[in-house]
Amino acid sequence: MKKVIVCLTLVSVIAAGSVLSAKAVQNAEKERGYVSINTSAEMDVSPDIAELSFAIKTSDTKSMQKAAAMNKEASDKVYGILKSMINTQNGDYIKTSNYNASPVYTYNGNKRNLDKYEVSNRVMVHTKSIDKLGMMIDKSIESGATNVDSLNFSVSNYESQCNSLIESAAKKANSRATIAARTAGTTLDGIKSMSISCSDTQKYSTPRLYMAKNMLSAVADSSAEGSVSTSVSEGTVKVNANVNAVFYVK
Predict the structure, then answer these.
(1) What is the pLDDT of residues 26-68, one digit of tens each?
(2) Whole-angstrom Cα Rg for the chain
């Protein structure tokens, strides 16, 4: 019985010692000085990837089947013309999405009247052939696309650009922390914490999107004049990296 009591006493002492050690470490941690630095690095990059989305809407006042058949015919034409203009070996591809077929009603007081049957489909092209975007828009609208829903640009080497910028921002953080510590009469003594982030922003996207959504009338006017030539400017993509580092000081 005495042995059991002695063992329990030893366990209690060890446990108490562990608690005290943990508290001592925490207190020492709190007492250590540190310096916090936030830095960033950015660059403007010419995009080499474009994603262009076309809407194809058809309708018929009497038959959903006819509206669907009309939509299939127009969608096949748009898909076909886009397929002939992309390079799949370069990572280009086309996909369709958001197919919808529904009746459209009008209301006169409490009375609901069938107006038409409407079918919509969306064709999206992902391509590196940025120089062909204007032609893709023109030919797709000629083939039956009723609207250009979106036009977005990106860079294929986004990860490597981010890594390079994070490295630059981290070096800047270390340099500034070193200067700050030296000015305060101390030196750096390891890293307490570090958080990083990277993002990209397409410059001038709003004017471009507005232009794209109004290309139908522009193409129609150009067709009337006998020449179709939609001009698309990809602008630049700004890649930004941010580093928030906290360094211990001696």
Answers:
(1) 555 567 899 999 999 999 999 999 999 999 999 999 999 999 9
(2) 32
With residues binned 3-state (H G I as helix, E B as strand, rest as coil), the percentages for the chain, rounded to 5, are 45, 40, 20
> Can you say whether the dihedral through the CA atoms of 209, 211, 212, 217 is positive or negative?
positive
Any domain includes 10: no
pLDDT value for 245: 97
Pair (110, 187) in one structural domain: no
Query: 77 and 142, same structural domain?
Result: yes
Distance separating alpha carbons of residues 202 and 200, to the nearest angstrom: 7
Residues 39 and 56 in one domain: no
CA distances from 241 to 126, 152, 168, 245 (A): 26, 21, 9, 13
Question: What domain count does the chain have?
Answer: 2
